[in-house]
Amino acid sequence: MIQDFFTPISAEVLSFKETSKEMLGCQLVKHTKELGFPDLDKVNLAFFDVREERGAVGNEGTGIGADDIRKQLYQLYTGNWGVSIVDLGTILPGNEIKDTYYAVQETVDFLLKRNVLPIIIGGGQDLIYANYRGYNQLDQAVNLAVASPKFSFGNIEDDLNSNSYLSKIILEQPCNLFNYANLGFQTYYNAQEEISLIEGLSFEAFRVGALKDIAVVEPVMRDADIVAIDMGVVRCSEAPANGNANPNGLYGDDICAIARYAGISDKVTSFGIYEYNKLFDVNHQTSKLISQVIWYFIEGYSLRTNDYPYGSKDSYLKYLVPFENEVISFYQSDKSQRWWMQVDIPTQSKYKRHVLVPCSYDDYLNTIEQKVPERWFNVHRKIS
């Protein structure tokens, strides 16, 4: 059982008394020394932190700040959610960093098999690798979306760390990755060879300037299984608590919007926030922002409509758009008015869950004008 990986929530956090029963700290079930490990039956979301920083390049101290986030999170008022949430406590660093990765991987695997969505607080973003490995036993290709100023390919010979985890995900077996999407990269932090590699692998990358209309990330979130946030993607003036903080980046409300889109997505099954460093936090500014990011994710989760068209599409409006020598099918949900476009593949393909590509109404209109979205071509190339 995964409780062997966890230590209870600290007495310092538990000594904080919420002033209202409507605050989140009173609504969630906590792992305490007195009450023991929570029962996960009928739980929707499980929050936990990982105090591992040995793989966090240039951000020493990122493994010690989760309790500051908890204190801020517990003070927030809940919405009208109807969501069952537990705080599992803390995974402490193992004797070796691979031991920590194993604990995270096994925890994610355990929770996913029980339909419990993990919310992970790092620690370095190399923990994204452990989160991804938690999907190994599910026998499905997964989509990973990361908000970060860098792609984190690193060098092939590098050890696994926050600067190289993506190359390990792509190259090491078993490879379960179908798509990687980066949100908020900054060109001057990424080699041109890496940018070309993203294009060559038919992955997606959105420069920080392309996210001025943050709604463009909604289809990306709707297609993701794993969503991760490197707090270095938020500009220093908004979130100073990061050893690799940048003067440019997303604003606080942008990262909250991304979290809300991730929460709303029926497909997202794990969510993580990494690289927070309390040593650089000013007036708890960043811990407050992270607590609000988590709040928005929960808010989004409570609004899920479960209208992803996995099975029968009888209740969806279908539109057919001729393009060159084929016809592209578009589907619109009558519940949420959201759109998908279909990539035709053989019925027995292992990529069946990826043939319906989330898109926007504008994508539909552009296709009518024979401007098919790049996302459709990316999926087509991968499964053809």
Describe the protein's architecture and organization.
The structure is a single chain. The chain is built from 12 helices and 14 strands. Helices cover 29% and strands 20% of the residues. It folds into 2 domains: 2-302, Ureohydrolase domain (Arginase, Chain A, 3-Layer(aba) Sandwich), CATH 3.40.800.10; 316-383, no CATH class. The longest helix is centred in the last third of the chain and has 18 residues, at 285-302. The radius of gyration is 20 Å and the shape is globular. The strands form 2 sheets. Strands 1, 2, 3, 4, 5, 6, 7, 8, 9 and 10 form a 10-stranded mixed sheet that branches. The protein has a 4-stranded antiparallel sheet with strand order 11-12-13-14. By secondary structure, it is an alpha/beta fold. The protein has helices at 11-14, 24-27, 66-74, 97-112, 127-133, 165-171, 192-200, 218-222, 252-264, 285-302, 361-368, 374-383, and strands spanning 6-7, 29-30, 45-50, 85-91, 117-121, 142-147, 177-185, 204-207, 226-230, 270-274, 316-323, 326-333, 339-342, 356-359. It comes from Wenyingzhuangia fucanilytica. InterPro entries: Ureohydrolase, Ureohydrolase_dom_sf. It holds the Pfam family Arginase. Belongs to the arginase family.
